[in-house]
Amino acid sequence: MARRILLLITDLEIGGTPTVVRELATRLNTPPSVIVDVACLSPRGPVADQLERSGVWVVPLDARGPTDLGAITRLARLLRTNRYDTVFSFLIHANVAAATIAPFFPNVRFHQSIQTTQPYPRWHWLAQSIAQHAAERIVVPSSSVAKAAQRWADVPAEKILIIANAIDADRLASDTGFQPVRVALQFEDLPQAGPPDTTSRTHGLKTRVTTQPIPIGFIGRLDPIKRIDDLIDAVNLLQRRVHLHMFGEGPERERVTDQIARLRLQDRVTLHGAIAHPQEALSQIQLLVLPSLAEGFGLVLIEAMASRVPVVATNVPGICDVVRDNQTGLLVPPLSPPALAAAIAKLLDDKPLRTRLQLAAFQDVQRRFTWDIVLPQYRSLLDLPAA
Hints:
Number of strands: 15
CATH topology of the largest domain: Rossmann fold
Number of domains: 2
Helix content: 25-40%
CATH architecture of the largest domain: 3-Layer(aba) Sandwich
Strand order of the largest sheet: 3-2-1-4-5-6-7
Order of helices and strands: EHEHEHEHEHEHEHEEEHEHEHEHEHEHHH
Radius of gyration: 22 Å
Shape: globular
Number of helices: 15
CATH superfamily of the largest domain: Glycogen Phosphorylase B
Largest sheet: 7 strands, parallel
Distance between the termini: 17 Å
């Protein structure tokens, strides 16, 4: 008898969790024995097109807001029509929607996924504390999220299953021809404005002046939790040493634009907007910076590490589960533009350190964060045979 599994997510916009759902659905969907469909509470997003090109059926439930009961009704109808044996939901709104209909489907197994350590808004965690009772297991990508789920949503420890997020290094290379074992422009190739020891000092930072700013990047949603303003302040401290390329969209765009204008950084910061694939950005930068106040995991970190793009990030929950300070990247305290700027300058100036971190990060991703390692854990959760 064929297995029918529904993956339910809040939206299919470009982002870390939709990417995980896309990869999971694509890899588990092996008709006729296993049929995996994806439903999103929101209208269609760009990831829906990617799923359908891979042969996965996508159902947008077109919710007009978090209180749209019509979307819940459409979800229940979808379950009755297609007779799924398992519903696996991702993110708070999808978890609540799944939990709402669970009592009407006693023969369906329900699993949920929490992907954040962000403490606010508190009502999200309150809602999750109620919704978790409808799930057999709560899947989280890191021990930091496990702790947050226990602390703020009262999820029993024995109910939590840690399954890390993962990437496909081969796809990262093949989608646009980007090779993950190199970057397009090496640090050593950058011409110097003067002798190698030509330096300037800004706010206590020793920085080398170059005629060509080194491209560094941020990839992610422009959201307050990402603390993008700290990164822009760090770029200002570094003077003309770097050029920041920002890839993503979100509610902070206007405020970011205003900050760039106020600091007169228009020639040192470029807003590229959202991208369909991370390698579009990773092939243009030589260092990734993630200054978040909290993360559930930080998928972009392992995408960069697999591409041998060194990373500077904040030492906060979620990120510290992925990046090991001074082993696979540099971690700095959050809310500190000077610390960010100092770490960026350190990586740019210290080639042996940079080389060591790049290699160790690449190897760590291969050991912990590839689908070859992660997918069997999902198969076990869903009672699917080994591939």
